[in-house]
Amino acid sequence: MAEKLSFTGRTFELNYLDGQYAESGGTMCVVYGRRRVGKTRLITHWLNSRDVPGFYWLATDSSPGALLHSLSRALYEHIHNEAPADPGFTYYDWDELFRE
Length: 100
What we know:
single chain
């Protein structure tokens, strides 16, 4: 059985995410900062502890087209309950992706 990791601190950031989630309509939060300060842990802790219908996607140092393709597939799989997207699937452009 996996050991449950403890999570302490980051009250300000957790409250901020709670506030963004409470806003009407869709919200996208970009979390950025120095390496190895717990950004991924913060997001996964918040998503799991709040049981909210969201997901996170980790951008890479790639071209805008490659990023659009990667996020398109991740969003498709999230919307379609983890059903795999066709390998060539991508939204036409960023506007179409964010309207989804």
